[in-house]
Amino acid sequence: SQQGEEDPQALSIQEGENATMNCSYKTSINNLQWYRQNSGRGLVHLILIRSNEREKHSGRLRVTLDTSKKSSSLLITASRAADTASYFCATDLPANSKLTFGKGITLSVRP
Amino acid sequence: DAGVIQSPRHEVTEMGQEVTLRCKPISGHNSLFWYRQTMMRGLELLIYFNNNVPIDDSGMPEDRFSAKMPNASFSTLKIQPSEPRDSAVYFCASSRQGVLNEQFFGPGTRLTVL
After folding, report:
1. What whole-number distance in Å separates Cα of residue B104 and Cα of residue B101?
2. How are beta strands A55-58 and A105-110 bridged, if at all?
3. Do A42 and B4 touch (CB under 8 A)?
4. How far from the centroid of its chain's Cα atoms is residue B62's Cα?
5. Interface A:B, Cβ pairs < 8 A
């Protein structure tokens, strides 16, 4: 099964609303990363949060990490139509040190 | 910087043919990754290199798949012979040393095996 699993699988919101996406994982990690993928394109790195960090901001993005619950959330504030994309969380496993991606969340922002 | 460059962008071939995908990583990046993305299985790591040396190829599905990195600026992923189930989008990504850093993805190669 996936190390990182996102939920919901799909999210549809109105422009201007906030979008919250969650990621859960099973074993301890060194860091957790969020990526965005626009249709027909490669993944683009959004933000990296280390296991000793609890919250990180980048522009309209806010990422939290709760290592006790083994979960992370990505919040996009004041969403725009251009935020429509798939969002992936990726976690590393200290044991084998490679990045594992979840199945992704499809976000649709209606203008 | 031009980013990670992949070629071709699209490839349509017939079952049994050899397919070669190419990747040029970002200059100065020491790690290179090959991924495969399908609707059913999501994004799977096939193999990654550090300093041109293959580190983990446990994701390579079978012996029909092989990857090389002859120098720091070029890598290939070869499938021989190709099968319809190999149809997917193949991504190359690169990063500064190690898998824990952010990865920069190329635009991908969409492979269709008929």
Report:
1. 10
2. unpaired
3. yes
4. 14
5. 47
Q: Are B68 and B76 in contact (CB under 8 A)?
A: yes
Q: Report yes or no: B25 at the A interface, CB cutoff 8 Å.
A: no
Residue indicated by tokens 């017939």: B14
Nearest to B12 by CA among B84, B106, B108: B84
- Which of A110, A83, A81, A80 shows the shortest CA–CA distance to A14? A110
| pLDDT score recorded for residue A1 | 41
For chain A, percent of residues with pLDDT exceeding 70:
93
Chain B residues in contact with A2 (beta carbon < 8 A)? 42
CB B21 within 8 A of CB B76: yes
- Paired tokens of A83: 């935020």
Cα dist. A4→A33, A70, A76, A92, B64 in Å?
10, 10, 19, 9, 29
What one-character DSSP code corresponds to residue B25? P
Q: Give the torsion through C-alpha atoms of B79, B82, B86, B88, to 10 deg.
A: 70
Model confidence pLDDT, tens digit, residues A77-108? 999 999 999 999 999 866 556 788 989 999 99
- Residue-wise pLDDT for B55-105, tens only, equals 989 899 889 999 999 999 999 999 999 999 999 999 999 999 766 789 999
Tell me if the bond preceding B8 is cis, omega within 30° of 0: yes
Residue B75 forms contact with A (CB below 8 Å) = no
Neighbours of B31 (CB within 10 A): 20
